[in-house]
Amino acid sequence: MNEQIRAREVRLVGPEGEQVGIVPLERALQLAADVDLDLVEVAPMARPPVCKLMDFGKFKYESALKAREARRNQQQTVIKEMKLRPKIDPHDYETKKGHVVRFLKAGDKVKVTIMFRGREQSRPELGFRLLRRLSEEISELGFVEASPKQDGRNMIMVLAPHRATKAAAATAATEAAASRARPPREGDGAGVEPVTAPADTTAE
Q1: Which of 52, 78, 115, 117 is deepest in the core (most CB within 10 A)?
Q2: In the beta sheet, which residues pair with residue 13?
Q3: Exposed (0-12), middle (13-18) or buried (19+): which is 151, by Cβ within 10 Å?
Q4: Beta-carbon neighbour count of residue 145 at 10 Å?
Q5: How confident is the prediction along the chain (204 residues), in pLDDT tens digits per residue?
């Protein structure tokens, strides 16, 4: 940047992105000083290097804001795992499905694993049938992101929440956080000392 640039000449870009052309470094530095801007190398590996006239302090500040906003808007993907057996008991199936539903409602993905043991490995259709049933029963909340596939003794399928489900989960989380942060209002009972009835001292 500025006097740290070592090239004899540079391809200069103006503050609005206009192409000035190839100019000697001294000329580029003078132009930067005339408009009270910095001369910044934006493509140092080019021949000649490309430099742009800009307010470097403002550029760094705006870049930091954009990076912070991107991190804030980035949704962290969480993958939960649910393991089932191909001959799972109906009650256990409903319990496991309930967990899958809860994960999807929270906006998380779910990796569903069917574990085959012994002779069960010769009946992969049992796993496919179970996974298809599960995907159909949770279709209002999520969809099959990765179709069932055999992986050794296991069969794996990945479910992901619909956009509307994720949006609802994000809204619920925001409202919950706001509710926790809300100061107690008058009438909530906060700060009120409990009233204790006086003991009966009347002798029998």
Answers
A1: 52
A2: 19, 52
A3: exposed
A4: 13
A5: 888 888 899 999 998 889 999 999 999 999 999 999 999 999 998 899 999 999 988 888 888 888 887 776 665 667 899 999 999 999 999 999 999 999 999 989 999 999 999 888 888 999 999 999 999 999 999 999 999 998 889 999 999 999 887 778 777 777 776 666 555 555 554 444 444 444 444 443
pTM (2 decimals)? 0.51
Is residue 88 within 8 A of residue 95, CB to CB? The reply is no
Judge whether 38 and 1 are in contact, CB under 8 Å: yes
Determine contact, residues 86/114, Cβ cutoff 8 Å.
yes
Question: Are the C-beta atoms of 131 and 155 separated by less than 8 Å?
Answer: yes
Place of tokens 């590996």: 45
Q: Which residue has 């809204």 as its token pair?
A: 171
**DSSP labels for 76-144?**
PP-EEEEEE-TT--HHHHHHHHHHHHHHHHTT-EEEEEEEP-GGGGG-HHHHHHHHHHHHHHTTTTEEE
List beta partners, residue 156. 113, 149
Compute the residue count for the chain.
204
In the numeric block, the tokens 């949006």 are attached to 167
| The token pair that represents 83 in the structure block | 């393991």
Residues 6+ apart with CB under 8 A from 97: 134, 137, 138
Contact in structure between 148 and 131 (CB atoms under 8 Å)? yes
